[in-house]
Design a protein that fits this description.
Number of helices: 16
Shape: elongated
Order of helices and strands: HHHHHHHHHEHEEHEHEHEHHH
Number of strands: 6
Strand content: 5-15%
Largest sheet: 6 strands, antiparallel
Distance between the termini: 5 Å
Radius of gyration: 23 Å
Helix content: 40-55%
Length: 339
């Protein structure tokens, strides 16, 4: 496997997953939920109380009442100075920030942040829950998803420094071919980083998503630091990108969630493989190829002091600044095509 990826905790091994599954699946079932289902269960349980409250407030039924529940706009009001401070922090922009075009859901739609803070989960526990959740997806172990937890330092070096300056690149995957003596060919993938708005403080998100009659979580202090920008990386076959440009279908979408940086110092990574248009039960890219692409992303965007890393940094720079000096043979030489 990718030793340098293990070093930086990019992937969890099956043995680790098996060890933690029994201990974390209980936490997973409490912390990773469908929030819409949670709301329906709540309305059923407290239907009588909701009807009484709706009657007191002159409303026809409890549906009108639930429609008046707190929203981000109502919480971020002049009567909530701490929340207003966080809103200003969340409105900060960074270079290359764009409107989202991918289908990645916000973290609050995947993980019940309220449960995370009510039970005071550690960074290690959150990492175990995150990985076990994706491994336990219906399609089977590791099929269709990648997951990892990385430190803020790694994310800052890779995304906020290198990718902010060089947001695109080309990575090869080895393919078999009968057209040459060596029987080898390469498929090239165009990777593209995108950066989005700073996610609000998770305590504020958890308070917004609270249901009636639940105790509100304390809002973050006005002095709380803002999270860094979140990001995605799209991996698209180069040939398809040349033909369709922005309309090309990516085969792999990586999302880096930075919502828990201020509270836990970690970034959650989620990789989602695109189903094949011809065979929806299959994926356009194999799990192994997806790991190779993410490994290549790390090697070119997370610099180190060894000579190979220096050459990779030079290739990345030349790709953007000195196209006439970019050599495809050098790309193949410094891209490790094995897992």
């Amino acid at each position: 496997m990718l030793s340098c990826i293990r070093k930086h905790a990019f992937y969890h091994s099956n043995s680790v997953v098996k060890t933690v599954r029994k201990t974390v699946l209980g936490l997973q079932s409490r912390s990773l939920v469908d929030l819409s289902e949670r709301r329906r269960e709540f309305e059923s349980k407290y239907a009588d109380k909701l009807r009484e409250r709706a009657k007191r407030e002159g409303l026809s039924d409890f549906k009108e009442l639930t429609a008046k529940l707190p929203t981000p706009l109502s919480l971020l009001s002049k009567d909530n100075p701490q929340a207003t401070t966080m809103a200003r922090m969340s409105s900060n922009k960074a270079a290359h920030i764009t409107v989202r075009k991918d289908s990645s859901p916000p973290l609050a739609d995947i993980m019940d942040l309220r449960k995370i803070f009510e039970s005071q989960h550690s960074a290690e526990q959150i990492s175990q829950i995150w990985n076990a959740f994706h491994v336990a997806k219906p399609k089977g172990i590791g099929q269709g998803y990648l997951s990892a937890t990385i430190s803020l330092e790694i994310y800052a070096n890779m995304a906020l420094r290198t990718a902010a300056k060089y947001p695109s690149f080309i990575l090869p995957l080895s393919r078999t071919s009968s057209e040459n003596a060596e029987g080898r060919a390469y498929e090239f993938f165009y990777l593209q980083w995108s950066f989005y708005e700073v996610p609000q403080h998770p305590l504020l998100t958890a308070s917004i998503s609270s249901l009636p009659f639940e105790d509100k979580l304390p809002l973050p202090p006005p002095t709380a630091k803002a999270n860094p920008v979140c990001s995605t990386v799209l991996f698209t076959p180069l040939q398809e990108y040349k033909l369709r440009q922005s309309f090309a279908q990516p085969y792999l979408v990586l999302t880096f969630y930075t919502d828990l940086v201020t509270t836990h110092g970690i970034v959650l990574m989620r990789g989602e493989l695109t189903p094949s248009p011809s065979f929806p039960e299959r994926f356009s890219l194999s799990q192994m190829d997806a790991q190779l692409l993410v490994g290549g992303l790390q090697r070119f965007y997370l610099a180190s002091e060894d000579q190979s890393s220096v050459e990779r940094a030079k290739l990345l720079k030349n790709f953007h600044e000195r196209a006439d000096e970019f050599r495809w043979k050098d790309l193949l030489e410094y891209t490790d095509l094995t897992v």
